[in-house]
Amino acid sequence: MSVRNGDQYLAGLLDTREVWCSGERVADVTTHPLLGRTARSIARLYDLQCAPDARDVLTYVSPDSDDRCSLAYSQPRSAEDVARRGRMFYRWSQESLGFFGRSPDYPNTLLTGFAMAAPFFAQNGPDYAKRLTAYYEWCRTHDVCLTHSLVDPQVNRARGQSEQRDLGVALSIVGENAAGLIVSGARMLATLAPFADELLVFPSPSRARPTDAERYAFAFAIPLATPGLRIICRPSLDAAGPVADHPLSSRYEEMDAVIVCNEVLVPWERVFLKGNVELCNRASRDTSAFVHGIHQSTVKSLVKAETVLGVATLLADAIGRTELSAYQQMLAEIVDAVVTLRAYLRTAEVDAVRDAYGFYAPNPEVMFTARNYFPKIYPRLIEILQLVGSSGLMAIPDEADLNRPELAADIDRYFQSANLMGHERVRLFRLAWDLCGSAFAGRQVLYERFFAGDPQGLNAARFGAFDQQSIAARVRAFLAR
């Protein structure tokens, strides 16, 4: 099977999955008023990879056949392979202006990273590695759309899983039989879950399991239409109104969800780790999976920063602020963020390293720095956009007003800008509002803050892992002169 197109992707969502949104069980995510537009936006990504002018950027020839596969499933064997996959990430992310944080290439890349480290999983037993490899090959062949869920529900973060008051809240193994594992409990945060085919459940890279937590130590994959699996969505940020009123949230509301399992059977062929706390705690450190994932997310961050720069520039041009020094200083901050992200990516790709399993990964030191950089800078980029647009962001009519003939003259006159007619300015400012002032905008900031995990924990880990001693020794030697 070759890569899927948009219609094939949408057809794959017409199954028995149990999705709940605002008190309603969703019968069809592809047509639901709060979910359907996002499904169709994802379908456009699948259409793009079938377009003749994009095929060589987004796909590659399967190593097992003449079929085309998504480059997200490619296994890099050189620095150029890493860079080629980066170009694929960039092309796909451009379609959403960087606002699909969990586009399918992200979890697909994670799975590929784990599959490249199959010997690691073999430490749990040879069958586990064989299952993982077979599952990866199946996903690659069928162009599967994945999402993942890595984190336990927030109950008491001061306690480990085995110390919680209710030991059954976090997803755990409650039994097994000849067919597979039986799991119950919940996992978060399954962004894109209503729109994905399969769910990856892997250990969190940012939260270790205590040594007595064998029942919580596992890695597996299941279809989102598995009996007993329930997807509980947060309220949708798609207002279901005209696209021009909410140009981002009407297209890219990727949806966050909690996964609840009630005695869900996970077939053995889909179980990749079981009962080994040490391996679960080492899965992110001893494989390159999350480094590959950070590569994709950093490309997404670059495209998002470029979008903020583009919108901020158009806003400033529209109201004459590009000529004012204070706003030039702020716009320069966005330029610096864009160039910094480009530099991270260029360096990580050119200085790609060969990992313990013989495959190439973007330079981990650079990728970890990029991962920690964007959550700090993105809120500032959005603040700059708010400052550039200022009060004009709160005085914008909507599409219904633009469509009223009796208002047309007033809107074109009283909402005009230095270089735009009134109706043109309104549409630009509606885009800016969706980017920096709407509920969708607030979710984007929160998402970027915590996308990779707890920022304080990540920074502490970054400090602890970096080789500081050689630099400290140089300073000590200087002091001893």
Description:
The structure is a single chain. This protein is α+β, with helices and mostly antiparallel strands and 481 residues long. The chain has two domains: 6-281, Butyryl-CoA Dehydrogenase, subunit A, domain 2, CATH 2.40.110; 289-479, Butyryl-CoA Dehydrogenase, subunit A, domain 3, CATH 1.20.140. Helix content is 47%, strand content 13%. The protein has 17 helices and 14 strands. A six-stranded mixed sheet has the order 2-1-10-11-7-6, with no helix packed on it. A hairpin with a 6-residue loop joins strand 3 and strand 4 (68-70). Helix 4 (79-95) packs antiparallel against helix 10 (325-350), helix 10 (325-350) runs antiparallel to helix 11 (364-389) and helix 11 packs antiparallel against helix 16 (455-465). It is globular. The N and C termini lie far apart (68 Å). The relative contact order is 0.12. The model has no long low-confidence stretch (mean pLDDT 94).
